[in-house]
Amino acid sequence: MAANEKESYPWLDPLMPPKCVSDNPHTKRTRSSDPPPELPTSHVAYTDVIYDHLFLPLNQLLGNVCPEQAELVRTAPEDFLAVVPYRAGNGLFREKGNQWLNQDILAFLKTLRFPGVVDEADMALADLATTTEGATPSQVEAVLQAQDEQNPDTKGMQTFAIDKVLTFSVLEFEPTQFSWVISNFSGDSVSCEVEGEILTAIKHTLWYHNEFCFLVDKILTKAGIPGTVNDHVVHVIATFTIAFFDNTDEWGWPATIVQLHSKPITMDGEDHQAYLHIIRTMRFWVDMVQLKLAESIDCQLCKADTHPTYGCPFFKMEGWYGLTYDGAECH
Question: Residues annotated as region Disordered (predicted)?
Fold first, then answer.
């Protein structure tokens, strides 16, 4: 595409408020429906607050689950719910007393009584196997099968903290939703003070990158969205946002990370990966300093990829019954 065509196009202010922010599953809150669901009662005390919504895409949830079980979930994801213990992984189940954690989770869920539901919820918890013998899934430890009309708000509540061990989230398997996280960047140019300059640099670079523009145009045209190449690129870039996280480098020096988000532009896996690849392999410059592609951010507690472990919002909630983290170890 000729440069003069881009110069003459009414390019939007890169610092305009982003679009579709309310669609971002990473920034929603639990019990956000209008009106919000009533809290279930239980004879077991748990932290009954509104949490940050935890979203983990399907491929992440089923990452190392054995093919036989994963296929059942992929075939009918609406029939299952993912059970993700707080601090899930091999280490959790190897600790003394945690061998029967899944059974404890199921026993607690059966104590819940939802408004308008008389009978005990009919549900079953199936332990998951992995592709590696002797290991446990890194995130989803079990899948819950339940009659939805009997247990309507478990996924709406989502997170339950009963004690330092019995803390978990119940998530939907969402095959039509990808993560909004695109990439993380570090470097001397990464600072909250230059947020506008970073976002402007990313948008302007993509705007003039022909490969990115052609791919976006192909994907949106295939999806039936009208407009020119320029219109399509503006449509996509308008959803871009960034967030900052304090971090340290390998020598222990402060090294802030900036994370780029955007609304996924396709549900085709190959097209989505091509879209991510172009952005992740591109060079972005803020003045004379390059943004360096950084490793992914993974919370070892809730498993989200939108904050580091020390920034997990769950254990900071008022009235939290689960374990806490002081930056070095869990308590």
Answer: 1-40
- Tens of pLDDT, residue by residue over 241-260, are 999 988 776 677 778 899 99
Phi, psi of 7 (to 5 degrees): -65, -35
Domain limit, last residue, from 123, 148, 177? 177
Query: Would you say residue 8 has pLDDT above 50?
Result: yes
DSSP string, 208-252: T-HHHHHHHHHHHHHTT--S-HHHHHHHHHTT-EEEEE--B-TTS
User: Looking at the structure, do residues 209 and 245 belong to the same domain, yes or no?
Assistant: yes
E strand or H helix at 289:
strand 289-294
Q: Which domain holds residue 270?
A: 3-24+179-294
**77-87 confidence digits (pLDDT tens):** 988 888 889 98
User: How distant, in Å, are the alpha carbons of 85, 101, 103, 135, 164 from that of 98?
Assistant: 11, 5, 10, 15, 11
Query: Has this prediction a pTM greater than 0.90?
Result: no
| 312 confidence band (pLDDT: 50, 70, 90) | very high
- Model confidence at 118: pLDDT above 90: no
In a domain, 312, yes or no: no
Q: Do residue 206 and residue 108 come from a single domain? A: no
How far is it, in rounded angstroms, from Cα 43 to Cα 176? 37
In a domain, 260, yes or no: yes
Same domain, 124 and 209: no
Q: Are 144 and 80 in contact (CB under 8 A)?
A: yes
Whether 296 contacts 309, CB under 8 Å: no
CA distance 175 to 10: 36
Distance between CA atoms of residues 196 and 149, nearest Å: 47
Shared domain for 172 and 247, answered yes or no, is no
